[in-house]
Amino acid sequence: MADAAPRLKSLVERMLGAPLPVRIRAWDGSQAGPPDAPAVVVRNRRALRRLLWKPGELGLARAWVAGDLDVDGDLYTVLDLLTGLVWERGEETPRGTLARARGLAAALRDPEVRGAVRELARLAGPPLPPAPPREEARRARGHLHTRRSDKRAISHHYDVGNDFYEIVLGPSMVYSCAYWPSPDATLEQAQHDKLELVCRKLDLKPGQRLLDVGCGWGSMAVHAAREHGVRVVGITLSQEQAAYARKRVADEGLTDRVEIRVQDYRDVVDGPYDAISSIGMAEHVGAARYLEYARTLYALLAPGGRLLNHQIARRPHRDEAAYRVDEFIDAYVFPDGELQPVGTTVTLLERAGFEVRDVESLREHYGLTLRRWVANLEAGWARAVRLTSPGRARVWRLYMAASALSFERNRIGVNQVLAVRTPDSGHSGLPLRTRTWN
Hints:
Helices cover 43% and strands 15% of the residues. By secondary structure, it is an alpha/beta fold. The chain folds into two domains: 4-124, no CATH class; 147-437, Rossmann fold (3-Layer(aba) Sandwich), CATH 3.40.50.150. It has a seven-stranded mixed β-sheet with strand order 7-6-5-8-9-11-10. A four-stranded mixed β-sheet has the order 2-1-3-4. Helix 2 (46-53) packs across helix 6 (111-124), helix 3 (57-66) crosses helix 17 (390-408) and helix 12 crosses helix 14. It is elongated. The termini are far apart. Belongs to the CFA/CMAS family. One of its GO terms (molecular function) is methyltransferase activity. Residues 164-419 form the Polyketide synthase-like methyltransferase domain. Keywords: Lipid metabolism, Methyltransferase, S-adenosyl-L-methionine, Transferase. One of its GO terms (biological process) is methylation.
């Protein structure tokens, strides 16, 4: 009898204490749920075993990456409908939130939830834990954000393959929030405008020295040297990024002005620099190391030098001590990555000695950027799978689509913080009206 989907729907609703807003289509061909809604496809019983052994985001992530779970319909719509059931919405969590491992113990005190879990276990079949997909990051014991652990984490995320990133990012090869003049502009134009915005905020002049921390594939370094005549040192921990960036520099004829290094920011000792750009890198630093990061950059700047710190931020939590890193992101996307509220970032930069002069939110711009990256990936899906793996491509599709919604719904943001190593004279060098770069 094909009844897996109705049973699943009933069980999930009993555990969550809320109606399921999507259809379920199960491995036996059965369906249940709103007829006009997009469907979550449960391809096999293994998906249920993953959720039972790792209840929460990690179990869901493993089922998605392995192809045990899929979506029939618009992925953005499904993610939006499930927000608040699978992911927390602000500070609220539904009854019996099996979707959060930290709420499982409380949920299981509910007799109805315990009964539903037992029924789900019977439906899932033999209680053997499935192996995690091979795309999951291998975690080493020890302290976070050492030079070795940071290099390993960066390699997991960025050494997927330059050809894969070309599919997702397009010709600009800029992996950070673009700056859109309008929603119908091209991604390449918006990324050019972002790089130019950074250069104008830094007030780059010919002959100055720029340090680009986390230089990626060299886009900022090439733009600053070519368009503003500065000498640039770009640093990254990714060997693949560095090789790609060096080739771009050579192709542009800029080898006399741009040097690309595989180097940790903590090991840069050839200051002072007139300006520092850090675009989409500080998310990897970690809360425990952030003040060290800020002090290191401050020491590398000449008096009057400027820092442009472009960084994703999370919303503050009422109980900051209870904040946990997103399990899916930590296991499959950014191992050891940590987000902080923008207020924390500003405070730590000022504790390091900087004078923070401007904070600009680009939150809506990142939603537009991510949707373009998802469209690029979907358009080049077959090649992306060949270059990496089906699981890796699925990781990126889910990660970018979910992130787009998070920016659009104000669950996370992104900010450009302009800070100055103001000299003892107090003269910052900024104009009276600072937004002259707009």
